[in-house]
Amino acid sequence: MKLEELGEFGFIDRLSGRVRKGPGVVLGIGDDAAILAPAVEQVTLATADMLVEGVHFDLALSDPHTLGRKSLAVNLSDLAAMGAHPRHALLSLAIPPTLPVEFLDDFTRGFLSLAGEFNVTLVGGDTCASKGGLVISVTALGEQHPDMVVRRSTACSGDLVLVTGSLGDSSLGLELLMQGFRSGRAVERHLDPLPRVEAGIRLAEAGLATSMIDVSDGLLADLTHILDLSGVGARLDLARLPFSEECRHHASAAGRDPFALPLAGGEDYELLFTALPEREAEVRSALAACGVPVTVIGEITAVGGLSLTDPGGKPYHPERLGYNHFGAIRDA
What we know:
The protein is α+β, with helices and mostly antiparallel strands and 332 residues long. The protein has 2 domains: 3-148, CATH 3.30.1330.10; 160-331, PurM-like C-terminal domain (Phosphoribosyl-aminoimidazole Synthetase, Chain A, domain 2, Alpha-Beta Complex). 33% of the residues lie in helices and 26% in strands. It has helices spanning 3-6, 8-16, 64-80, 101-117, 169-178, 185-191, 197-205, 219-230, 245-254, 260-264, 280-288; strands at residues 25-27, 35-36, 43-52, 85-95, 121-129, 135-144, 160-164, 211-214, 233-237, 271-275, 294-301, 305-309, 320-324, 328-331. It has a 6-stranded mixed β-sheet with strand order 8-10-7-11-9-12, with helices on both faces. A 4-stranded mixed β-sheet has the order 3-6-4-5. Strand 13 and strand 14 form a beta hairpin. Helix 3 (64-80) runs parallel beside helix 4 (101-117). Residues 328-332 have low confidence and may be disordered.
């Protein structure tokens, strides 16, 4: 079916019929604005991300269901990085006229499937025609007690630097997709990332993370945000860097730097955070309770700047820090 046959309001009705009404929703889709009732003694955290065809995704490499899931996941990852409970989302789409309704059905099913996993309610958005490619804009809203929200700007000298999970798989997955592969762990991590929502909440509510950010633009680029806002520096030991055997194998087979993708690849959506050394055991226990591995990769220093040491103990100088939309690649 063509979208022009269904029409804008027909599409909205088709979507709203699949949306459940969640807690805190006084009025959802259908009016000029949603009405939301915040929980007692909570602040609202809001985040927004755009995904643009040809910049963030290629429809030749992405299926609509996982694209729908990823569109929400990247926003939930931002909420996770501040320790928030995700609650609501708004979805806006600029749609090319050639995109079939069946694509949009699969896309919204994917979006709503991830929303259901994290108890997120879709409460509104917008649609319009696009003369170019598909544009996806998502706003996610979360809640947390104001004293428990974790910021980027509160790392202190002596803190440990830690990261959840493993790094570099998403960038490897993109490379494999471009080479014709359509399955495998790395490909799945690129197309269908899982935000570390429970891990972020546990770290925040136990007061374990002194600062936190999600790894979206690359470990080094995102760590630099923490350092700049906190007015501190950091030392990283690359021998401790967690990356998969698959990532290591592909780097070795290609004869390239094994640290390039884990340090600067981006879109891993892991949590990068700092914590007091004396609370490391509590951090490990809290994250083990939700099945999330964590690795200490360095420490915060009083002197500004970022220094890296390779496994042989020598200084390491990366070619790049990560992705920057308006500078393409941020130089080290």
